[in-house]
Amino acid sequence: MENFRKVKTSEQDSPLPFPDLPPGVVEMKVKEGSKIRNLMGFAMARMELKGTRQIVFSGCGRAVTKTITCVEIMKRKLGGLHQVTKVHYKTLLEVWENKDPQPDGQVENLTVHKNVPSICILLSKDPLDPNEMGYQPPETDFLPRETCKPKGTRGQGLTEYAPGCGTVWPLRLERVKAQ
Amino acid sequence: MAEPAPPAEELALRRRLPPRLPRRPGDVYVNMQTDFRAQLSRCRKLLGPGGGCAEIWIHGLGLAIHRAINIALQLQAAGAGALRLAPSTSTVELADGLEPPGHPDGRPPLARARNNSAIHIRVCRAPPTP
Question: Among residues A4, A117, B47, B121, which one has the fewest Cβ atoms lying within 10 Å of its Cβ?
Answer without folding.
Answer: A4
